[in-house]
Amino acid sequence: MDRLPWDETGKILLALAGRDFNDDEYRECAGVFAAAGFEVATCSDRAGLITGTYGTRVSSTCSYGDARPGEYAAVVFIGGDGANVMADDRSARRLAVDAAASGRVLGALCAAPLVLARAGILEMRRATGHESVRDELVSCGAVIVDQPVVVSEWTVTADGPAAARDFARTIVKLIH
User: Fold this and answer.
1) What is the mean pLDDT of residues 45-60?
2) pTM greater than the 0.85 cutoff
3) 3-state secondary structure labels for all residues of the chain
4) Secondary structure of 92-131 in the HEC alphabet?
5) Is residue 93 a part of any domain in this protein?
6) pLDDT tens-digit readout, 64-101
7) Is 28 a member of any domain?
8) How confident is the model at residue 167 (pLDDT cuts 50, 70, 90)?
9) Residue 47 is part of which domain span?
10) How many domains does the chain have?
11) 99 bridge partner residues
12) 140 in any annotated domain
């Protein structure tokens, strides 16, 4: 896959579960991306207000199906208790596939690598994720690496909230 010129866009899309995304992962990633000069947009299963596990409310600007990955330098899936529901969503999986096909940096944190795995993106790729999802990642063909953040070409995965800052910084470095 050819890398597209990243100076086309200064935006990063965060894909969140419509309910029960990880508040800390969202805040940490959004903060790192904003501090690096990126405009941060969000999408979910629907446009409108969505709520994290601990009550953080975020405005989702569009649904997974309406998101256009070519408009962003990266598409990043945030984990949390709702990640399994997000991974079951056909539109969320399609967003991941389209982002990968368009040569964008693709990220998934904590339980969110399930989205990439169920979309077939992690097959034969090095990856990590929260310990609760690792068996399924392996069953979908991922090669698990026991590190907090793992890079495989333009795909970045991380194992949980404690790795969120390094995960986001790694994505910024890949874009630049």
Assistant:
1) 96
2) yes
3) CCCCCHHHCCEEEEECCCEEECHHHHHHHHHHHHHCCCEEEEEECCCEEEEECCCCEEEECEEHHHCCHHHCCEEEECCCCCHHHHHHCHHHHHHHHHHHHCCCEEEEECCCHHHHHHCCCCCCCEECCCCCCHHHHHHCCCEECCCCEEEECCEEEECCHHHHHHHHHHHHHHHC
4) HHHHHHHHHHCCCEEEEECCCHHHHHHCCCCCCCEECCCC
5) yes
6) 999 999 999 999 999 999 999 999 999 999 999 999 99
7) yes
8) very high
9) 9-109+160-175
10) 1
11) none
12) no
- Quote the CA–CA distance of 142 and 116 in Å, as a whole number: 10
Which pLDDT band, with edges at 50, 70 and 90, does 128 fall under?
very high
Residue 96: CATH number of its domain: 3.40.50.880
Residue tagged 């529901």 (tokens): 85
Q: Would you say residue 118 lies in a domain?
A: no
